Fold each of these.
Amino acid sequence: MSEIAPIVLNVNGAARHTTALGGDTLLTVIRDQLLLTGAKRGCNQGVCGACTVLVDGRPVRACLSLAGDCQDRRIETIEGLGDRPVMRALQQAFVAAAAFQCGFCTPGMLVAAFALLADSRLPSEADVRRALSGNLCRCTGYKKIVEAVLRAAHALADEAVA
Amino acid sequence: MASNPALFQSPTLTEALDLLAAIPGARPLSGGASLVAMMNAGLVEPAALVSLTRIPELRGIRVTADGGVIIGAATRHNEIAADPRLCGTAAVLPHAAAQIAGMAVRNMGTIGGAIAHADPGLDFPPALAAAGAVVELASAAARRRVPIREFFVDWYATVLTPGEIVIAVHLPKPKPGVGLYLKHARVSGDFAIVSVAVSLARDGEAHVAVGGCGPVPLASAEADGIVSSDLSASALAHAGDLLTALANPVDDVRATADYRRLLIPRMLARALNDCMAASRSVA
């Protein structure tokens, strides 16, 4: 009978000790205790995608994950991905394509797009739309975001060839 | 916020079932896609949470000696969407799984959690009804199996009793043929306004079910009998009328009840015609 306490999380490559309680979500803990505020609390219902993080390399909803259930898993937030070539290409492409206005959805969009490009280097537009279908943007519209992800994919492919 | 529930991580099914029996108000937690969302919304306040995610026997898909397929309750939607063994008439299941919510939710949500939650807009209930699934349940006291068409009893209600959980979904051996899940939703990944699930075997045997149009998936042996013997436009219309008569939809933010009733026969015909076209292209 193993009730969990205290909760230790592997976040962005480092063991982080927390005082999380059993019902605390991963989003609450990374934002309020670890002060990693890149992942946003939008709907808190798993609908908007603003809280998307990677767990064991796969995008999940931090707002629907319990911190205690993520122990021994590899958690990566937007803050931990900035030095990766795929994320750098995405950041540059988002700037070049002007793929944001308020920026609230951007971290979730970038994490979801990162997972896509880490898996498949030259996705079609349909692939991009499918991969981002769980991430809502309320101001830019999706056209420029999809354009940015495709632009990043092509930049990475060109780099690989060069 | 209400008191924060204790979280238990059980390494074995026996321990999880004992905890659920011992702690009044304890809830089993699988992927979290439904339960944590309801906790965040203040709709449920579990006394304790018993996590099922580290119990090996609840994970994964395996094929039995007789060709049947067993899907562990904690198998995630994306694993089901990508499993090539769910083929032929069983392909209705991965086709439905691939249309659930978005990528991140499919990486979390589990089939056992989805059907235990029994939201009538979910994609697995009609897909499992078309696939002829049997649900395996377990409590500290007993195990039992319930055909999927008897598993759902009302809005958000199943035959599960307190302390009892879904441990697996059993599918009959897939037959050569096609399985298809046709979903009509306002936007990609939303709950279905209406959905139609079809398993059509090459030998003609067909099973159909409709989602989003009442507390439980709509299915009937009579409708299955019709589409198993005759796929003409008039037969499809007749089967569509039978299923529409079973419907008990609501007006909600997504659509009116009348609109849902209107869609049932049209989507049934389209789904079966798509299946026939797919069979021809395979043959």
Amino acid sequence: MKFELAKTGNLLIVKVSGELDHHFADEIRIRIDSELIKPPVRDILFDFNGLSFMDSSGIGMLMGRYKKVKALGGKAWIICNNPNATRILEMSGVFQFIEKCESIHDAV
Amino acid sequence: MSESMFCDMCNSKEINRLNAEFSAKSCNEKLARSLVSAMAVQLDPTIDELSDIVTAVSEAVTNCIIHGYGKINKKKEACIIKFECILYENAIEVGITDEGCGIEDIEKAREPLYTSSPEMERSGMGFTIMESFCDGFSVQSIVGEGTEIRLFKIFGGDNLCENTTIPQ
């Protein structure tokens, strides 16, 4: 798994590639949460285009971060072109809360 | 060695078998995915079929680590997950067993979005994913003794014979 964080204005961009399971979800969660407490970060964009695998641990991690940005008055977006991960996101109803978008420009 | 629950479903002979045991550590979730993948590719599945069984196994092993052994006061290295994989000519069966706390209410655990660990940000989708990604799924559990999950996936599902039944 590879994990990159970037910031532009209020937006925190989280780029994850490789395999997102429980093992790495725990690691990602800690790193994101340490950024979410730093103003002016308020919105979050997950870039999952490089993901080769995700299980339900990814859902828990996403929804937990969604709740945090919502509490900050912010918004969450996700980019994901992996069919397996997209199926799990759809089954869990994540797109009702985290808006699916095609590129980073939709969120900036 | 566990009895196969699903061999009647695929009308074919067992052709290969793998038994493994590993510690209930989260780094072994990837190991379990690699094991099932290495076995499954011998049947030349489609990418979707392979991804389905790999995801289901990942969910089952994660459950053992988080729920089965999560609240047990024992070193993770000493908590063992048993992994059994049986290959048939056109299907794969995987058994994942822990000797953890067991499940009190299996029906409730199988409900979509139900989780016993909301504080750990679990989504409650594990069993739902296992059930919907596999052609056969069973869970047996005894409180205080452990849980056994069995997953069954037919490859080339379009060629299923009409009298194939899916056990509940």
Amino acid sequence: MKKLVKADGWYWLLLPLMVGALYLDFVWSPDDRILGASQRIFYFHMGAAAVVLLAFSITAVASVTYLLTRNLAWDVWAAASAEIGTVFTTMVLVSGTLWGRAAWGIWWTWDPRLTSTLILWVLFAGYLLLRDSSDNVYRRATYAAVLALVAFADVPIDYMAIRWWHSIHPVVITDHGVNMAPHMVDAMLVSIVAFIGLFVTWMVIRVRLLRTEMAIDQVKNLWRGRAGV
Amino acid sequence: MMIFVVMMAFLFALSLGSHVADLHAALPGILWMAFLFAGMIGMGKTFANEVREEALTGLILAPGDKIAIYLAKLTGAFVFMVLIEIVSTPLFLEVFQVPWRGPWTLWLLILALGAAGFVEVGTLLSTMSVHTSSGDLILTMLLLPLEIPVMIMTVQATRDLLTLTRAGFWLWIHGLIAYDAIFWVLPLMLYDYVWEV
Amino acid sequence: MMMTAQEKMYLLFLFLAYSALFVVMFGFMFKMLQKTRQLARDIALLADEEGKQDLPVADAPSVAPHVRSREL
């Protein structure tokens, strides 16, 4: 057991962090004057949204680096980050619709923010589909990288949508600081950190798995070459 | 392709019934849906023509910048789409009994900007889909979400033009210009990589 | 909108439920971390052995070259 603890020691930080964040969100943070308890969905929503921004940025950077260096290690990073980012986008959309039902009385509306987030989700779903269907590893990596960059064009638009256009989505972070009660800000920050911790763990798992897949392919090819098939 | 669009006009008109007020409200969306379908069929063919007899390899080996091939394909698809739009727009207006409103230069502006948006993304993606297994499916799956912004903006601009509301119209036109600019620059930077494989 | 005592209690239950869910997930992720670590080690070993071994098949075919290896 001791050896196990040592192997991925940093991982144990996630347990108190996440439970602490949950405690802050559900019990400690003050009630919202207008929204009441439904405001607490926001911590989850914001945490997931921060991870989406981080994940797709990593995908974009890794994609550019792959195109420049042609090193498949970067492709692995881009793929893992895009997969997890898509999952977190789903979480953002689901928690957003729940909150929208409570705050606006409707599940969904074609608001700029909501639309651009949905487009982002569909684009990266397409990205994963493209990764699934190509045969040549290098070609797949190149096309995926190109598509990731095209899809990433939507991320800044999504971020700025509530600031450029008249959106009904609330703007929390403005030029004048964070638009919330101080206790809520604390709870939000801890949630974001906890979600990023979750993301990091998941990334480690995915990257290791994808690397193993790649290595198995290499060993297989080696054997085939040896056997002269 | 022209016959296809004509058939779409009649099918839409028939399936929506003959209630004139409904038809008026639905026209902008239907018009651009028809263009989207026609454009997608056209774009799928952009590179399919080159698959036979390894013409694609010949194109790559030809002297000159690869970007020239992209620009040529882009121009071809753009001209094709604008022609279809110019010919079929009056037809749609006639079939749906919507009076012709607004100066024709603004009509041309929307048609050209919309076509450019569709074609820029479509050409890049169809280059990729030629090389992938089940490429047609991928092309459709990726093209549709990427075209959603063009769709929203062109439909809204068309609606504003038909109802003669100026302020909203220019907002959508600026959006379209921004979208066209982004997807004009991105493929130019990325196209070399798509061809290398 | 102030919350009633009952609502506060519900929130506490929600916190406990989510924490329990997370602990389950935490355990699962820990298992996955261990497993991927193991996999990475195994594949490194395999690749290592591969480098050392010298298979005679490729050097000197014992059958006529036109015979497919699948029929060997």
Amino acid sequence: MEQFWNVTLQLLGGFMQNCELFGVTLLAALPLGLIVAFGSMSRFFPIKAVCRTLVWIIRGTPLLLQLFVVYYIPPMMTNGDFRFGDRMTAAIIAFIINYAAYFSEVYRGGIESIPKGQYEAGYVLGMKKRQIFFKVVFMQVIKRIIPPMSNEIITLVKDTSLARIILVEEILKFADDFRVQGLIWPVFYTGVFFLLFCGLLTLLFRFIEKKLDYYKV
Amino acid sequence: MAFLEVKNIKKSFGKNTVLKNIGFSLEKGEVLAIIGSSGSGKTTLLRCVNFLETPEKGVIYVGGKLLFDADDPMIKRESEIRRNRLHFGMVFQQFNLFPQYTVFDNLVLAPKLLAKDQIRSRGSYRGVASFKQAQASIISEAEQLLEKVGLTEKRDSYPCDLSGGQQQRVAIARALALHPDILCFDEPTSALDPELTGEVLNVIKGLKSSDSTMIVVTHEIGFARAVADKIIFMDNGVIEEEGTPDEVIGNPKSQRTREFLARFNRFGD
């Protein structure tokens, strides 16, 4: 029993790292993704080309590989003069870029699904483009993207364990340390942490969807 | 010069010329009905007048003021267009209400934003210098408009809870909330069940008596005849015939007009 609590505490400490990676990535990638989405829809070709290429590269390569790139390439290019202060920073940067790319496509789908008539109604009422976007279109986009966004966000929870590959001290790394010492059950036990966290998120998303139920788009 | 002067409008989509150098004029307080078969260019003409489409050629004057000139790039800037658009109100076939706002908020959203902007940039909105006062009059006007279209009790409902006819009446009130000089209707009853068209047409009829200038693109020939002072029959991008309802509908001169009207009469319109 004492061993169980000991393991639980250790894993919980590791899981805090997962939570930090999750939280920071979410906070940064949500707005950044919106900016990238605007870029991908820009009428100015160079911006559009850059954003779409970025999204293509990020979505077209494994996140695991992107973690390696962010962690190892800067010191290689600078003969070791520059590297990210700690492994966690490198992981956060890779995750933000990766998730901003995925989020941007969710946003783009949502924005492009809003009927042209909504913009035209705004125009004939003398509204500015910015006002139309933020006062009229945005809330409709939010409502439409909550289901696909929930999916991405729940995937993000589990993806945080990939940071282990650059030795971030997250939950699976701790579990693996136990395994090396001959104690194998903590590896399976980690699933409980992820399950509980995703369960909470699912409830939260369901609550938000209910909250937005008062109108239809 | 008439109150509204639309001259030499030419508009193409790709190789397809939809409006072939056409124009019309309208006096203050008059109602113009534009009829014609689908694809004849009536909706495009209305959209050009509202600056939702940019014609390649043509000019538009309201009250003697030049609002659009296809040859003048300055007047086609977004800020100019936005200001000039306010001379026109537009009611769409598909209503285009804002789904996340209540009926009341649909009415006051744009006037409030406009009041804020105009007070900031010019010092006043409709002669009022304080935003609070402007807001108070926007709110009371919105309430009056809801009464006018008979939807006072739907004030706090959301568009998804209204029938099509009710939504369209809200859309009319929303357009009126900005005090347009000319109110435009793009087939306002075409998306409605036949039993709901009456309530919308009655509201439009009611506006005529309150001296609004209106342009109505419609397939309701009986309605056009009853309400319009002037009718334009469009065919294939040109104005085939224009005149009073009695002239155009009662006694059409053009062969095309006769053919078009015959199709309606056959079903006892």
